[in-house]
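Look over this today:
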Amino acid sequence: MYLFDDLLKRRKDPVRVGLIGAGKFGSMFLSQVPTTVGLTVHGIADLDPDRAKAACRTVGWSEELIGQTKFYSSTQAMIDAGGVEVLVEATGNPIAGIAHAKLAIAHKIHIVMVNVEADVLAGGILAQEARDAGIVYSMAYGDQPALTIELVDWARANGFNVVAAGKGTKYLPTYHYSTPDTVWDHYGLTPEQAAAAGMNSQMFNSFLDGTKSALEMAAISNGTGLSAPEDGLAFPAAGMDDLAHILRPRSEGGQLESKGMVEVVTSIERDGRPVFRDLRWGVYVIIEAPNDYAAACFKEYGMNTDSTGRYSAMYKPFHLIGLELNTSILSAALLGKPTGSTLSFNADVVATAKRDLKAGELLDGEGGFTVYGKLMPAKRSLGIGGLPIGLAHRVKLLNDVAKDQPVRWEDVEIDMTSQAVQVRKQMEAAAS
């Protein structure tokens, strides 16, 4: 891509970035800004501008650089001030994310959606509206969906059939029922240690209970056309050396429903033993040799194949999250291309009961006490009228919902006039 060569040409007219949300991901991006030529943070919008300034100091910004940067309490104010070339949406709030994406589209500003929650909730509509407006709507490089899509694109561009793609995590079936009160036990921390480190229990619980994995696999499915498992992620245990063996179709001795699927592998066996050479922090793609000659080449060049020699894995063992975000920003500004983008409404993540829920209870959304997100094909989600996890926050149940059963639109009292609900319904109608 030679992004750096193009970036050097912008030293006198830097790429101007507007950051929305100075949390962990935003802070990681901000830490790279002082050492990146040809890029400047034109403004930062955060509900607490003083906290955003403190984040800049924490990651090593000088007082001079902080003084040169504009801080806002609203995204609208930052956009109205003008000058932003690329917006980075890093709030993690799906409702806010949709609103910010709409603002970017209306003002024809490229947008990088760190907010996978908003992207899965309504990305099929937002990405198309952005393309119609002539701007880039991009997933965030550094996050696992964009990195996985890059591997899928590499495989397809080189003539390989993609059998599976996804990421690694730490998972056991009991994690689905973890709550913000129990999450730190699984991380080996006390609540006091987590609080001292500024760690949000509900956010970290969304990583543990499978919701974030479901969201990220839905984003990959929607950005590549790979299928979602019919009954949710299986989370097979597999290390780097076993990927090609485990992630092949069941008909050929593996654990996939069929070829062409997304899946997450876990770093621990079901009995708690660690997986050898696990991929907890990485991403992968499983490829199939299209012919005998290619299969022979796999062997000649030491590829990690299954027993047939026809399936192999390419993987990246780590991801650097916000430290890699510049790739998306510069790809949008300099090349006019996304680092992954939603192409269709192919997969969805439905709110699913963590315990027996009773009518009158309030759902508390991703990573909370009441529901976890379950991946499923969009056709199935639409067929059951499933409530997307992104809209399962602060809504009241009208009906009882049994443990592990999906929450449906008809089960909740929700404001059908809200922007997020209307955009989501628009996407559902287009897919019907």
Notes: The longest helix spans residues 116-133.
